[in-house]
Amino acid sequence: MEGTVLIRDVLARRASQGRPAVSFEFFPPKTPEGEQQFFKDVLPRLVQLGPDFCSVTYGAGGSTREKTLTLVERIQKTHRLPSMAHLTCVGSSVAQLREIIEQARRRGILNILALRGDPPRGETGFRPAPDGLTHAWQLVRLLREMGGFCIGVAGFPEGHPECREGKYADWDHLKAKIDAGADFVITQLFFDNADYWEFRDYLHRAGVRVPLIPGVLPILGFQQVDRLTRLCGARVPEKLRRRLEELAGDEEGSMAFGVEYATRQCEELLRGGAPGLHFYTLNRVHSTRQILENLGLARKDSP
Asked: Other CB atoms closer than 10 Å to residue 230's CB: what's the count?
């Protein structure tokens, strides 16, 4: 659709300026009250920081499909912020995926994060839908064949937790997604930058040249990190785990430590040439704002 800003162009512009791209991930609020709070308070305060783009997640089994598209459309119209909808293979045939993709196009949504997706609640393993897709690279190929879309994919600096062959095999699978037509990669959260450097260098040696954007989690506390890493398989370095355990029960101290840790992590990533930073905001403002201010990346006129 005319007027829709493609994220690959945003990334190319930032690279030409020698500046990192900053982006935020949001999830669809579960209640009408939560949605009202998101649009009235959370989103405006984060947009004031001057992000380059944002993404909106997609619930397990496609459970938030309509909400995801509605949020992306509304963010683009209300805030003129380039926005990306997550899309998974779960629970949809190819014909249904084509209809969802065309619906996104009609709504002016041309930036898509193509994912295989997690199994629906209660299921332990991924099973493709009848006449559906099995791998994310197939969804990338479908989007590229349909034309007009900017396509992002997910990368795992520590390897996908379901890839039994190990992280190098998983990174080869990621290259297949890029070869199928992906424009950029956003990584899963990680806490040790050595994992990102090894991931990046392996892919560069394999000929990958698209931006590999590190995903950063502003830590709120031990329980949050423990829960999220169990879900995604990320490793918590022992020193970090011990400090979070010491701060358990101290909400303010945990949040301050999380800001400090992420600031140091981001500084090192940027010094090493990372093309941007993608913050898993969890629909919260304080920590992301503090980190960007520490880095000197918050828009100067933000309150």
From this structure: 10
